[in-house]
Specification:
The structure is a single chain. The chain is of the alpha/beta class and 236 residues long. The chain has 2 domains: 120 residues, Response regulator (Rossmann fold), CATH 3.40.50; 96 residues, Winged helix-like DNA-binding domain superfamily/Winged helix DNA-binding domain (Arc Repressor Mutant, subunit A, Orthogonal Bundle), CATH 1.10.10. The chain is 41% helix and 22% strand. The protein has 8 helices and 12 strands. The strands form 3 sheets. Strands 2-1-3-4-5 form a 5-stranded parallel sheet, with helices on both faces. Strands 6-7-8-9 form a 4-stranded antiparallel sheet, covered by helices on one side. The chain has a 3-stranded antiparallel sheet with strand order 10-12-11. Helix 4 links the parallel strand 4 and strand 5. Helix 3 runs parallel beside helix 4 and helix 6 packs across helix 8. The longest helix has 18 residues. 34% of the residues are buried. About 3% of the residues have low confidence.
């Protein structure tokens, strides 16, 4: 996927927001597909996915949470960015548990949105880098293997489908086995530019990470909760 000319879907029932975001994205060289609600977007996505989805939570016909759930059933690789109000904490956390990569609180600056879009597209593009080459970066931690260029994870040789944010947090834990990472430290790893992300965001991602790794290996227990402090990767 190219950094520029990527196809970005903007799903929001506010026409002014769709137009403003669409204009800013096109100015950066992206192609834009606007949708007024989740149902219109889903009908289009059934025929082909865009390169990234910018998604409001509260919409008629089909809300953003349901659309996110359906999209994740189709693809773990598709970058999804939620637009949310600061007071929608429950929906925000649920959206992350359903597999959103990132979220941005309204009102937001177009500069911040463009920065988030570029990061998500760059991470997604790395997944398509061919194997091999001197620049390949592989991290092996016990049964875990992380490909830092393509944002791919394996456990015991089996692939584990992760979103880019889940991969980033997994790498933050696994690269220092036995070391406790506080929620604040993990927030800085996953959301270095967002002052409004809460601790519950990290808990949501860790819950989803554990679920995916347990689906691969029912005996998985490498991510430990250190109560009152945070999380750590259990040393072998």
């Amino acid at each position: 996927m190219a950094m520029t000319n990527a196809l970005i879907a903007v799903v929001d029932d506010e026409e002014n927001l769709r137009e403003t975001v669409g204009f800013a994205l096109r100015r950066e060289g992206y192609r834009v597909e606007p949708f007024p609600d989740g149902m219109h977007a889903w009908r289009s996505f059934e025929h082909g996915l865009p390169d990234l989805v910018i998604l409001d939570i509260l919409m008629p016909q089909m809300d953003g949470l349901e659309l996110c759930r359906r999209l994740r059933a189709l693809s773990e690789r598709l970058p999804i960015l939620f637009l949310t109000s600061k007071d929608e904490e429950f929906d925000k956390v649920l959206g992350l548990e359903l597999g959103a990569d990132d979220y941005l609180c309204k009102p937001f600056s177009m500069r911040e949105l463009m920065a988030r879009v570029k990061v998500l597209l760059r991470r997604a593009a790395f997944r398509d880098v061919p194997a091999g080459g001197d620049d390949e970066r592989i991290v092996d931690v016990g049964r875990l293997r992380l490909d830092l260029r393509r944002y791919q994870a394996q456990w015991g040789g089996s692939p584990v489908p992760l979103t880019v944010t889940e991969f980033t947090l997994l790498h933050a834990l696994a690269r220092h086995p036995g070391h406790v990472k506080s929620r604040a430290q993990l927030l800085q790893e996953g959301y270095p530019h967002d002052a409004y992300v809460s601790d519950r965001t990290i808990d949501s991602h860790i819950k989803r990470l554990r679920r995916k790794l347990t689906e691969t290996d029912p005996g998985f227990d490498a991510v430990e909760t250190v109560y009152g402090l945070g999380y750590r990767w259990r040393p072998d």
